[in-house]
Here is the input.
Amino acid sequence: MNNIYLQLIWAYIKIGIFGFGGGYAMLSLVEKAVVGPGWISETMFTDIVAISQMTPGPIGINSATYIGYVAPGSVSPEYSGVAWGLLGSCLATLAVVLPSFFLVLYSSHFIRRHHESGIIKGIFMGLRPVVVGLIASAALMLMNASNFNPNGISWQLVVNIVISVVAFCLVFFPIPGSGGKKKIHPILVIILAGLAGYLIYGL
Here is the structure.
């Protein structure tokens, strides 16, 4: 087995163990693990995040599957075939899922028995703000040139910022309607953003 596969397994085992707070909170860990060694570029990482958000399933698992597929071929061209990519996908996905599976399996039993414990309550009181901080860190990490201005063109930067702000407002703020105030579903926002990108950049 090539060393890249061992590195993938080790990297995603660590992400699976320490990735508190869900997929968005673990993005900073994933970015350091896969972009730092040069397995994929920062631009490709942001594209993978976008694809992982649009496809069904947790973003952490989706990104692991995708990165496991492309990383071997990026590191060594001889491992760019479909079979090598599928092997990387399976290994990365299992490596990120199994630690969480066993931790949740044990911790759920432990917490159920000791849920009234002051120590357990204190631990969760400390973890909650950390999760918020990790998600905020992921948001700031994605506010980079690869997302907002990959081509170095000023008008594209302005357009992308406007799209980002409009998408945030559509999802976060309720819109008055005949049945009261309602929030637009994120799936509809994704479709509208894709359509806007096609009309602005694809034509």
